[in-house]
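> tool_call: predict_assembly(chains=two)
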Amino acid sequence: MGQQFRTSSSGQIDRGRILSFTFDGKPYQGYEGDTLASALLANGVRLVGRSFKYHRPRGIQTAGSEEPNAIVELRTGPRKEPNTRATTIELFDGLVANSQNRWPSLSFDIMSINNLFSPLLSAGFYYKTFMWPPSFWTNVYEHVIRRAAGLGKASTEPDPDFYEQCHEHCDVLVVGAGPAGLSAALAAARAEARVILVDEHPRLGGSLNDENYSINGKAGSEWVDEIHAQLEEMDNVRVFTRTTLFGYYDHNVVAAIEKVSDHMPVPHQGHPRQRMWTFYPGRVVIATGATERPLVFGNNDMPGVMLASAARAYVNRYGVKPGRRAVIATNNNDAYRTAIDLHHAGINITAVVDSRIQPDAALVEELESLSIRLLTGSTVGSAEGHQQVSYVQIVTTQGDTLDPERIDCDLVACSGGWNPNVHLHSQSGAKPVYDDSILSFVPGKSRQSEVSVGAANGSFSLQDCLAQGVSAGTQAARQTGFKSRKMAVARADNEGDYAIEALWISPTPYNKNYKQFVDQQNDVKASDVVLASQEGFDSVELLKRYTTQGMATDQGKTSNVNALALLACQRGEPLPEVGITTFRPPYVPVAMGVFAGHTVGYDFMPVRRTAIHDWNTKQGAVFIEAGLWLRARYYPQQPGDTMNDCYIRETEATRNNVAIVDVTSLGKIDIQGPDAAEFLNRLYINNWLKLPVGKVRYGAMLREDGMVFDDGTTSRLEENHFFMTTTTANAASVLAHMEQYHQIEWPELDVVFCSVTEQWTGIAVAGPNSRKLLEQVIDIDISNEAFPFMSVGECMMNNIPARLFRISFSGELAYEINVPADYGEQAWLELLEADEELEVSVYGTEALGTMRIEKGHVAGSELDGRTTAQDLGLEGMANRAKHFIGKHNSERPLLVGEGRLQVVGLKSLEPERNLRIGAHLVDPSVKLETVSQSQGHVTATTYSPQLGCGIALGLLRDGASRHGEQIEAVFPLDDETLKVEVCHPVFIDPEGELVRA
Amino acid sequence: MPDKQDLPVRVSPLLPSNGDFIVDYKNVRLSERKALTAIQVLSFNGKHADAAAAIAAALGIKCSTRPGIVNSDGKTQVCWNGPNSWLVVCSDAEAGRAPGELFKVLQDAMGELGATGDLGTTGDLVTTGNLGAVVDQSHGRCGLRLSGLHARRVMAKNTAIDLHPRAFGPGQCAMTSVAHMNATVIQVDDTPTYDLFVIRSLARSFAHAIEHACHEFESEQ
């Protein structure tokens, strides 16, 4: 059943393997080897879509990735993909495709009424037509236009497939596996260069698959198979099929997309749907062929109008007759082969219409021998029919349009000439140049290590393609360091001249107004180009943007040169004067998913976990992201526990008893060497030379501009051995800062350092009972006399080797214990279980934050890159008699004078109300209207169980001298105002008696 | 240092409950090199060559001062790790060493750190024999071994460096980005087999990415 448009034989399809598919819900059959387009044509389906703007009926115009019209919605459900080109979709059993941009149906589309209003929808219409009244701009016009715009509908469900990003290096990359590309790949491979050959089709051969050429006395496809077999045998060659090179970037880096699974219903288990390849070739041989351009005549977008080369491809490659009665229209010799191939396939060629007065004599003779009618000096003026071509009107190129001959046909195969595919060359930064002999652009001077060969280089003869391929492959191998061997060039058996004569636009029958399309995907007509030029948008870049010509998903592959030529005619200048627009990646549409690769969902970004992570998870801890780290934020104990419940409970447990917290994420840097102390002395604002071994000191370091960079404690483990801690956020940047100063400024300092963040699990043990707890498990004397505040020592915690620090972030009697990370979980459990009577608990970063605010310790929210040591109350530490990084700049007048924002404590004066982070600090007599009235802001807030009210740290203008003042914290976003009292930032134990207890 | 039997069991960062992480397909295999000893040695100013020689003498394994080189006796790997740094890696059990022994051997090779007197920067007062610093990173690194016919293809999914046999072979190492994470890559043999070292906290994300890249080959028989 069906497939009434199949040829009796021929083609690279497997007629034994029947595949079923549906289009717009109707079932059809095709063969293995078909594309969706060829299978639709085989079933006589000509109307496949509606155009973007005018909703005109559209069919299949090409047989490749340049297709502007036959774009469909492929698959259903989460795999639904809009705007796929039917010409590139390999048919598989069960394929489901639907037409798009039509309602209610493809053959009856309400929006085709736009076609009648086309005078309102000319180039730049959205700038002109919808000007009045202005009140309609945003409420009506934009709304309506946005709804009408866009093409196809993407699935809103999650993509069930995954994507990969891969990398491969090579000496020679050959793009395109046609006659030139295959020759180049083989030549480079024989010279033993590492070669990658990519081709977008499932089968190598390029144009040889579409044509009836023979090489070395054999069918073209046989020659392709031979070369392919040779390449596969070499281990220095990788062949990628179904792979399209879409981007050429700096440093000869190129990107390609491999459609691993698009030719099957669902990917094989474990296989990606698509892969993005980044190739790093030494040299690129571009053998991407050429794209035929259509003729510009009335209704040239009608289903049944097709490129001459595409008609040939459907007959030769797919065994499909794209019509029954064909008119061939051309301005060059190449389309004659279409007439001959279609004739041999049993298609009635009603006429060959050649715009040239004197076509090639041999071809004329050949047509005569086949009894094919030839009209010279003529062209198709218009195609006519309802939703598909039923006849054409022939006009003469001399302008005789009043007596057009009507020729019945259902297929118009037209050729306006060929454009070399210079896209990659242009993407590489080079500028294509105009070649008058082929009336198109060819590659210009290379900017990167690339060369174009064959049709991509404007050489349309098969023999030239083969020869240029061998030569470029040989040279590419030589240029990448290989001794090349001479390789014979294959012999092309049939050749002819191209002999193009310009025909950029056809006269219309009776000089009537016809829609003569240039860019069919964006519905840009020849008259739009004329209009744009008349309105002053007459440079190529302006034309492109004003008319949107070349800006559709096909990037104007079939339309660009025609548009440029029409612009040149309009400006009365030769085409090279008009120039060419720049091609940019991607060469073909690429799914967003492939750029994300596998880094989605779980893999969106790597996660850093501490050794306590699994325990925390089991406890039901709620985590917070700190950079890549996941830290336990708080520990709900029962259903319904809020964050506030938890951190208040955890804070109280710490302040009244003892609790432990995982502080592994703090940066840790091991510093050793004879100049280690001197190095630290220059990094930090305070003194380090005289720190005794076994002691810890708090330090602050500045950036070069004098602002505080980071803080933390550093311990002297041995005379020349220090252990630095940094904030979690700055762990990497502090290390980089140190590397920079050591490598560039002070290479003479004999000091080495490295990150040991990962080696140690850090656990803080805090609370009045912390010593009592640790005494159960630590083997050294940690009495206050033997191990006072700011001591460090090595010890054993039961059978775990550990370092113990007596430091406190919470303001309580506290210790920090570091154990090798593989023992971290065990150490944690042993601390929890060490003393049954004590009921040791845990706390998270919320309680940690609460206690540091109560204690007035500055952290990241105060170290915001705009605060100086003086602002933060750290100036007392600084030794300005020595040199340290940032010292000079921190003394700049504006940084030390009055009016600075300084850290203060803030207490809520309203019960049950807490301050908000980011709230502005304002004089109560002022109603906050502009930022200049703000005297500072709140940086960190919490409820203090100790004080029984909301407290905060903030940065307040001249705040250090304003303790006791009552001001307001204003949060304009929520229209909130809170009365607060300014106080010293240390809310509890200002004398530090607890930490020294 | 306590006796070997006194130390607790080391818990791998890869799986909860210290399970064995393994991907075992016909043509590609990914497993953890558990409980490794990894010691970083950093040479002091002007001592790079001497430190390398001292490491080589202490271990009986060459130690390269050139970038990207790893030397091994089959059990212990001495991996160039930076302009003044090496990472020495082994499984103590395989290498027949007691826990902590490698650290001690390397520390002895570097000599004791001397006093610095008045902390001048001219280097006069630096005690000779002070070749470098020795830092234990054993618990800070997770080691994975990727091996098999398709190992290179798995790597190509995650790293941009050229691992073609003409560019990278046994005895070479690289510090690079693998699956967007910093990693040390060592090629062990021609199978090819790669050892991958990543910081402990990233171990699960890292292993997950590599495991994911292996799935394509799961069904090969």
